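[Q] Does anyone have a clean structure-token version of this?
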Amino acid sequence: MVVLPGNSTAHTLAERLLRRIVPVLALMLSVYILAGVLANIFLTRQRIEATLDETLSRTGFTLEIELEPYVRLVRDLASDGSLRAYLALLNMDINAAAERARAAIDLQSDVLLNFRLIDLDSRVRLEVRNDNGVPVMVSTSEITRIDTRTDIPLFDRAAFVALVEGGAQQVVLGPLRELRDADGRSYQPPRAALALYTGVYSSSGFLAGIVRLELDTRRVLDVVNRAGQNLIEPAPGRSLVLVDRAGRVIADSSAPAREYLTELAGSAGNTRGVPVYETVSQLALAGQTVSADVHGGSVVSMHTITFAGTEAPGWQLFYVDSFWTVYSGLLSTLVLLVGLGVALALVGVVLLRRSVQPLLLPVTEAGVRLQRVAGT
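[A] Here you go.
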């Protein structure tokens, strides 16, 4: 006869006890889930940073190797005796100087487009062009003064002297320009040219002029396209984007047509209307350190490419990926953790209730008996 009241009392005590225990268990479980979430976020970010940084470093290193021979060549031309003598008016025979320039272009006629020897008054003293694989010296009647508005703002003498003062023959990377055919039409796909500049010094160590060497960038920029195919798995929103010092996009592994190269001369730049281009352009110009940072709907990492022997800063290489693609695995893990935590909590409450009530039954029965004895 005492079982039913005992069961009822035991149930009541069990409920009271559970109301005290469950919040503690819930707190412990929440701490466990939170620790798991934070650990997963930390490990996922570390893995993403390592993957992106490795891809950027390998691609950047390949770019440096690809451009290095031309940096070395323009420095060698600037120190050539025949060119220095002609520029300093020590030798009025242009043939020796022209032959040196022709030989340089002839060796790499598939890349080099144009050579110019310029004095400090922006006068072109010697020009050799690549005419369908044949280096040809341009007659003096065809040579005009450099257009300092569009060519490069280095023909301000004070600015250029400031760049190369100290005796080091730094090479300056000029802005890219779109290449067009003889009729002025864009190539398909579009092409761009890059000019390298360095100072020519007299025997007494003073700056005497400038060597300008222009090259077709297809081989250099295709490094980014090849890396996009070989180093990263193609996915929507994923690409390697190369940005020059002016914040203009000059290569994009996800856009091999390279239509942005036709807008290099645009006053508004070539990033308008493409959110990813606007983002990387702003980051490049701001000079920020970016490593697996979230910008809009993308995860972005950046690597600065500084070519040996050139004026810093160099170009910026970005790895851009979709946020949902990058963190899809993490989100699945978080959902699994939370679901597992909730399931454990429900199972724990049920097991506690079933375990505590039988344990409290003897206590409640003893209490009932004592109440009856006291009542008699």
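[Q] Thanks! Anything notable?
[A] Residues 1-6, 148-156 have pLDDT under 50 and may be disordered.
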